[in-house]
Specification:
Length: about 650
């Protein structure tokens, strides 16, 4: 099923008020245009067959007769199209008139949904012409020579896809029909609307649609009428909006005189995953009457959507862009500071101990600690920044560590680990010329011992520097840099650490500190456990060993946030990093990610406390619980077969 993607469209055709046959020509044109782009389900505006602004012409038999005739003609003319179409039209039933959505496909009407909530404002007085669904007695309706299901809570089901429909005002009430439809299984909601423009309404509408898609954990497709509607008193700007679980996928330009066809691909598989893991989602369903739901089958058109997926795949899902990045960074810092502040106050600790390497992670931890001490009005001098040069320390990172601590005004201590490590190598019989895992990890554990012992001596707390990406890959020495007394970065992925440090440099620091921070941002990521090269440069680049962090962060997000399979992650990574990494490179590091993620769980099972920042985190206490000896065989087998 295209990894769970369904291609949907919101269409806004040109209309002539009360000219039904002109209108269906425009509707048919958009249906065929959408079908040519492999759209599987399309929604049109409310009362699109007649136009919404007919007013008392809705009482005219000629209009109603020809609307039905035009509908049947459209259905017959498009019987060659597999696209499921949802179209607004006035229909007569029980000696009344209803504002309805007709759902049809390949020349057959599948069902009809009546509008429930009829506005009775000054500008909208639908109760003058239409009857609410709540006042209807029958559950069928005759159109032409056929009789079809008529029900508000109708769902059109094909495999994993379940479609619900509501009409305009239905969305604006406290409990929209779509809320109940979602709990009854609908994961795609179509809203056929006619919403006029007034100052300030559009941002509210966007917010409402995104929020409803989030509450329903659903895709939400909104089509509202546009150019051609009567402008006697109102203007309709033509809104096509597609949202998914709180995020806007695509929307149309407003106030255009061109017809609109807004297309995107909704990830139904991810929606179903989120519903499954959100145990609160179905609690409200216990009070629903099961008989309310009418389920009607349909055949979802089968297209290969993958070569031309019509949605953007964010290569850096942890890092927002534009103004959102500033807001995100500010909020993350506040969360980190609040978490550390509570721990310091609770333990009555007035001293913090941090190992400062001149790298990104320790820099962010130090910045967070400084901001926390400022907030608690504790002098910065009670932060002990300890730099511990070893065999692989370079001049660049050493100088940056010293300059950063000096400019921030913390207490600086320098404790070389070289003599201690050489003594330790002698004690355990390790040849210092053999640069193996023992050589590397001994240094990390020596540094951790220093930090812990100094913290004991000074009645302080060791602040951890390890980040989320390192935890995911197990890129930490067990009981070395893996351990601390509080890990402020444990929910921050590596790709975001760089942006956070850069943001703090530009927004919260003086020029001297900013200069040092920007050089740290530009320094290659390295544990510096292997001696530098002949020119004194870093010889051990982390991303050469475990792979690019931007790929691993992408894999981590898709795997934990949506439970995606390796096959789907592999495909999405190709789309997200097109032009940056080829297929074989992505596959290579995807295998590394899953192998290390499973094999290194034992390190996460005993990780220190730290504040949760985003939706993806690895705390074994409240977020991700996995056996330390779980097998990765199924995942690695799937990657091998790609």
């Amino acid at each position: 099923m295209n990894y769970g993607f369904v291609r949907v469209a919101a269409a806004v055709p040109h209309v002539e008020v009360a000219d039904c046959f002109y209108n269906i020509e425009k509707i048919e044109g958009l249906m065929r245009k959408a079908s040519a782009q492999k759209v599987q389900v399309i929604g049109f505006p409310e009362l699109a067959v007649t136009a919404y602004t007919c007013m008392d012409l809705f009482e005219q038999q000629t209009l109603l007769k020809d609307a039905e005739k035009a509908l049947l003609q459209l259905i017959h003319r498009t019987e060659d199209l597999a696209i499921l179409t949802i179209l607004g039209i006035p229909l007569r039933t029980e000696n009344r008139l209803i504002n309805a959505a007709v759902v049809f496909q390949q020349g057959k009407i599948r069902g009809v949904i009546p509008k429930t909530y009829l506005p009775n404002y000054r500008e909208f007085q639908e109760q003058r012409w239409f009857t609410s669904a709540t006042d209807l007695r029958n559950d069928t309706i005759r159109i032409g020579h056929g009789v079809y299901p008529l029900h508000v809570y109708t769902q059109f089901v094909s495999g994993q896809v379940s479609i619900g429909v509501e009409i305009c005002e239905d969305l604006w009430v406290p409990v929209p029909p779509s809320s109940l439809q979602a709990m009854q299984g609908a994961n795609l909601i179509f809203n056929l609307s006619a919403s006029n423009e007034v100052i300030g309404k559009h941002p509210y509408l966007l917010s409402l649609i995104k929020q409803q898609s989030a509450r329903c954990i659903a895709g939400y497709v909104y089509a509202s009428c546009g150019f051609g509607e009567s402008s006697t008193d109102l203007v309709f700007a033509g809104n096509g909006i597609i949202a998914e679980n709180g995020s806007l996928l695509k929307d149309s330009p407003r106030f255009t005189m061109e017809e609109q066809l807004i297309i995107s691909d909704v990830d139904v598989a991810s929606l179903q995953h989120d519903r499954q893991v959100n145990l609160s989602f179905m609690h409200g369903a216990s009070s629903l009457v099961p008989e309310k739901t009418v389920t009607l089958p349909f055949e979802l058109p089968e297209y290969d959507l993958l070569p031309d997926l019509k949605r953007w795949i964010d290569p850096h899902p942890f890092v927002p862009s534009g103004n959102a990045l500033n807001e995100r960074c500010e909020e993350i810092c506040n969360i980190q500071v609040a978490g550390l502040a509570k721990r310091l106050v609770h333990t009555r600790t007035q001293t913090a101990v941090i190992g400062i390497s001149g790298g990104l992670d320790s820099t962010l931890a130090l910045l967070v600690t400084v901001m926390t001490f400022d907030a608690l009005k504790i002098p910065r001098k009670q932060i002990l920044g300890i730099t511990m040069p070893g065999f692989g320390t370079t001049g660049r990172t050493y100088n940056n560590a010293i300059h950063l601590m000096e400019s921030l005004g913390v207490t600086i201590r320098e404790i070389s680990i070289v003599k201690a490590c050489l003594q330790h190598f002698e004690d355990i019989g390790q040849n210092p010329e053999v640069h193996d895992v023992t050589y590397e990890n001994s240094q990390a554990r020596e540094r951790t011992q220093i930090l812990m012992d100094v913290a004991n001596k000074e009645n302080g707390m060791v602040i951890g520097t390890g980040d989320l990406s390192e935890l995911a890959l197990g890129w930490a020495t067990y009981n070395g840099d893996h351990m601390s007394m509080y890990g402020v970065n444990s929910s921050i992925p590596k790709t975001l650490v760089r942006y956070l440090v850069n943001w703090i440099a530009h927004n919260k620091m003086d020029e001297e500190t900013k200069k040092t921070l920007l050089d740290i941002v530009d320094t290659p990521i390295s544990p510096e456990l292997i001696p530098a090269d002949e020119q004194g440069n870093i010889s051990q680049i982390t991303e050469d060993l475990v792979g690019p962090y931007e790929l691993h962060d992408f894999f981590l997000y898709q795997f934990l946030r949506f439970g995606s399979t390796p096959t789907k992650i592999y495909y999405l990574a190709q789309k997200a990093f097109e032009g940056s990494y080829d297929k074989e490179t992505i596959k290579k590091w995807l295998h590394t990610f899953f192998r290390r993620f499973f094999n290194q769980q034992f390190k996460r099972s005993c990780m220190p406390d730290g504040p949760k920042v985003g939706s993806v985190t690895l705390s074994p206490r409240g977020d991700f619980r996995m056996p330390s000896d779980a097998s990765s065989a199924l995942w690695l087998k799937e990657i091998k077969e790609l």
